[in-house]
């Protein structure tokens, strides 16, 4: 069953509690203000297998993507385990956090690609159709990712999720369990939900949106959500890995850190970020070929806290 990783803004606030010391409540009783300390965030490990070692990410491009849009996403995937020298902080240093989960690190390699520009299953996709698309590519040691263009509306897109990952059975005798994921382009349908902070949110403070590092609000939003589901797929591929809460819809490696991109983040504020001098774009990670990306915080099992790159 798919596990949905929504990139919605969560409005979280600190609660102030006034408590009295000494005498019963009265106008003259001394009072102190205390912040309620939030409980440590712990993603429980449910003893299931994780995706580790050498993994291949196969892509199904569903709908129309420009060559520039495809290159932005491909460069991101190739940056995850790149050994090329890039400035710090890097996309690969973000991905290395997944190696701190049980089982050790995994390296990502770009695999096969399918281009479905004819919308073979229509422009409104059900979860089962996403599985059908993802099953068209090799399954072993792989994550098959369906990427839908801005004019495609998968079921629950915007209403409850910006992307999803799950698993299904494949092979001649349906004995091979494989991992798949889906991410949609939110440019036209729900940028306020799935492309924030590059678009004004639909709720909360209406501060000016940040400039997207690759100049494409929809695709830069896809990168954030793709990062979320890939991290979820390797740390909780079969619904018995790392998560907190219910099996369906629980918090995972990145969805547990919603809205956090840089240090000092709080609801409605993504945190301190790097800014490109020429374009004014905001980012927090360098990729290959001079790319810049904005990646969400990830829960670090060593510190039991959400870790940001800057």
Secondary structural class: alpha/beta
Largest sheet, spatial ordering of strands: 1-10-11-8-5-6
Biggest beta-sheet profile? 6 strands, mixed
Low-confidence stretches: 4-36
Number of domains: 1
End-to-end C-alpha gap: 34 Å
Number of helical stretches of at least 4 residues: 5
Shape: globular
Helix content: 10-25%
Query: What is the residue-averaged pLDDT?
Result: 87
Number of strands: 18
The helix-strand sequence is EEEEEHHEEHEEEEHHEEEEEEE
Radius of gyration over all CA atoms, rounded:
20 Å
| Strand content range | 25-35%
Summarize the structure.
This protein is 16% helix and 25% strand. It is of the alpha/beta class and 310 residues long.
Record the SSE blueprint.
Blueprint: E1 3-4, E2 16-20, E3 31-35, E4 44-45, E5 53-62, H1 67-79, H2 91-95, E6 106-116, E7 124-125, H3 127-134, E8 142-148, E9 153-154, E10 163-170, E11 176-184, H4 191-194, H5 217-235, E12 242-243, E13 274-275, E14 282-283, E15 285-286, E16 292-293, E17 298-300, E18 305-307
Parallel strand pairs: 5-6, 5-8, 7-9, 8-11
Antiparallel strand pairs: 1-10, 2-3, 4-12, 10-11, 13-14, 15-16, 17-18
Helix pairs in contact: 1-5
